[in-house]
Amino acid sequence: MDKYKPVIGLEIHVELKTSSKMFCQCAADYFGKEANSNTCPVCLGLPGALPVPNKKAIEWTILIGKALNCKINPVSKFDRKHYFYPDLPKGYQISQYDEPIASHGDLELVSNPRHPRGVRVGITRVHLEEDTGKLLHVGAETLVDFNRSGVPLVEIVTDPDFDNAEDVKVFLEELHTIIRYLGVSDADMEKGSMRMEPNISAMRYEIRAKSEKKLPNYKVEVKNINSFNFVKKAIEYEIERQIDLLKVGKTPAQETRGYDSKKGVTYSQRSKEEAHDYRYFPEPDIPPMTFSQKYINTIKVPELPQNKVIRYVHQGLKYIDAFTLTRNKKLSHLFEVTSLKIKKQDNVKVTDIANLIINKKEYINLSEEVLYTKLREIKNPIKTDEKELDALIKHLIKINKQAVEDYKKGKENAIMFLVGQVMREMNGKADANIVRERLILILKSKK
Questions:
Q1: What angle do CA 312, 315, 316 make, to 5 degrees?
Q2: How many other C-beta atoms are found inside a 10 Å radius of the C-beta of residue 304?
Q3: What is the largest CA-CA distance in the chain?
Q4: 386-445 is a CATH 3.30.450.40 domain
């Protein structure tokens, strides 16, 4: 490892959650449906079928590009990417080649509690295409399900700016959070709506140091990984495999490999194609798209998690708490709407809200009203006169003999009845938990 520097870039595919597919009216929500039940002549690539682009998918691709600080290209077009595979019925995929929707962006990974080193990653391009069908391996047979064929798919390509697997994992986690904040995809990796493909190579440190733009003369792509941890492990294995070859004077083959998560190894699938192998040419059935600056400006990027972290810290939260809250859009929303209810007399601070949400997972699904009420009770506990309380309990035990007998027979509901009687007499000026404890203690002393 001392003499070699890994060079890593990423291709990330994100399925958009539009209501219909990219070029037809079939439902884009294909998950769990009977195989090949969600298709039409367009997504099956039948002769004469004409594709019509999905406007919402185009808008959302622009939104992703803007969130990643990309230049939105005023003119963009679709291209045919030719290759032959069973899950691609047309023999080509409608994608984008030389005029993508967005390009030349970046994402700065600010330091976080798990990864204190900040990293800036260049974004080469963000383009839109259609997803393919899905191969199902059943015993010795391979079947094809075309329900997924034609679903809008955004591909995000990074510059080869990574030199270690940990930075890759942090980047992907941040990108995943951003995609969910934008609301354009569930990015559910178990369902395959976010898939990662690292491109990995290595070269001598001294050669790389002479020109940071110089790249190795080969590249290995590991296809379709659906877990951040698996991406990290696949990269670490592949770097070690390639360096072992380089050390003995061999150049690793330029190829596409898969990752076996059970064995923790990559394996060869096929030789890797170059761009010219795909015989790209403009899609003749779809005219080029022209975006005015006025139209681009109407597509607004919401406040992203990194910006929320900064704002929360300014509000008084610790960095680690601000970071934790912003990893989940639901958590950050609950924190913000509950914070709006703060009143000086309630003795509640934003830090109290953050601590309760972060540390008490059972409170996450509460409404902001209920959550704030609980906080107010915690911060302003009711002070109870114990002598007055004990005297009242003894009196109520005397006049509620049936409830006392029921409790002694093991009926737990009886104790709640007695608690209710005490709380009513105290006009709410007592803590229900304390009342219950005192009741049980006094009842046991009278056995």
A1: 100
A2: 17
A3: 95
A4: no
